């Protein structure tokens, strides 16, 4: 198989320095890497990973390789690959097929090249590798023990496959581990989404009306951070319990049609399609900004926006202006792709430390148990989730309370009451 496809291998030294910086802020993953080096639980295992090629991901890949795995890495979004990181990993002998700015054909060609490794385990951020395997390379399935999925959007796709009886091998929903979704999705997405918007526009949040589409963990995190910077936050949500939670958290809650004339900035974090569409574009104010922090660039109806505009202009990097027939200007950021990775660095390493610790330990679990698992989506085993939390607390220098034997007996007894 072709060794690697990267933009510029001479960027390797710069990437290596950035990977080392992130490593110093990922203590839990480093402990697992040291364990893998001692025990070599992945010896002879071939892994294909379709993930955002960032400094944090590089440290996950190094941990897996320390366990004995051979790895092919490809990017999970055309605009999220950090070319210096791809070069650094390629220079270290990892099969890397990723470069920033891939078109759709190049994106899927990179996945095809990675699959030439004939994986035993797949790692995904959006389920694209699993989709390609099931659609075009079913001959690989007998060799695959299982997979891991990192993001909310991917887990939704995989659960739909499982419900249809189409999923051909077991997958662990790493996204749903509490030490992933409660911290990565909330604090990571909250901070990195703000960072991407600010990098692209230098937007002032204070005093502005910000419309947040979706109030899952990602939406909660972004709404909280926007409110903290002084924004007036409106939440648009379809699930009644989440909408009620947003109202109780102090946000205005309404339909997108009602919010459309009010917002200065709209951010989608739902995992669904056409959340903002023509009927909403028609109502928006002049110079409104649209951004997406969901995995795929389908949450904002970009073809619809294109069809309505009388002219378009790339007015600065990651900002495209659409002029409406009445002269209003609508600004779309980063082609509607993940704003936190397309226009910023993505989540901080301290948060990804937990997410990728779950990922690494889940890979080991699949290798050890995959042949006994059913073809469905599994949660991260609770013992892995708890271990990651314990290791993170230890790394932070936090000591927690322990149950006394009496307290433990009380919690497991029905005889003792008032």
TrEMBL record:
The prosthetic group or cofactor this protein requires is:
NAD(+)
Q: What is this protein called?
A: S-inosyl-L-homocysteine hydrolase
One annotated GO biological process? one-carbon metabolic process
**Binding note for cofactor:** Binds 1 NAD(+) per subunit.
PANTHER family the UniProt entry points to: ADENOSYLHOMOCYSTEINASE (PTHR23420)
Question: What organism does this protein naturally occur in?
Answer: Methanothrix thermoacetophila (strain DSM 6194 / JCM 14653 / NBRC 101360 / PT)
Pfam name, any one: AdoHcyase_NAD
* Enzyme Commission number(s): 3.13.1.9
Pathway it belongs to?
Amino-acid biosynthesis; S-adenosyl-L-methionine biosynthesis
What does this protein's UniProt record list under function? Answer: Catalyzes the hydrolysis of S-inosyl-L-homocysteine (SIH) to L-homocysteine (Hcy) and inosine. Likely functions in a S-adenosyl-L-methionine (SAM) recycling pathway from S-adenosyl-L-homocysteine (SAH) produced from SAM-dependent methylation reactions. Can also catalyze the reverse reaction in vitro, i.e. the synthesis of SIH from Hcy and inosine.
Tell me the SUPFAM superfamilies matching this sequence.
Formate/glycerate dehydrogenase catalytic domain-like (SSF52283), NAD(P)-binding Rossmann-fold domains (SSF51735)
User: GO CC annotations?
Assistant: cytosol
Family, per the entry?
Answer: Belongs to the adenosylhomocysteinase family.
One Gene Ontology term of the molecular function aspect: trialkylsulfonium hydrolase activity
Residues of the S-adenosyl-L-homocysteine hydrolase NAD binding domain: 185-346
Q: Where does substrate bind?
A: 54, 125, 150, 180, 184
Q: Which CDD domains match?
A: SAHH
Q: Extra info from the record?
A: SAH is a product of SAM methyltransferases and is known to be a feedback inhibitor of these enzymes. As a result of this inhibition, organisms have evolved efficient enzymes to metabolize SAH via different pathways. The pathway found in methanogens differs from the canonical pathway, it uses the deamination of S-adenosyl-L-homocysteine to form S-inosyl-L-homocysteine for the regeneration of SAM from S-adenosyl-L-homocysteine.
Q: Which UniProt keywords apply?
A: Cytoplasm, Hydrolase, NAD, One-carbon metabolism
**Chain residues that bind NAD(+):** 151-153, 185, 214-221, 237, 293-295, 340, 347
Question: For this protein, what reaction is catalysed?
Answer: S-inosyl-L-homocysteine + H2O = L-homocysteine + inosine
Checking HAMAP family in the record gives: AdoHcyase
The answer to whether keyword Cytoplasm applies is: yes
The answer on whether this UniProt entry bears the keyword Phosphoprotein reads: no
Q: In which compartments does the protein localize?
A: Cytoplasm
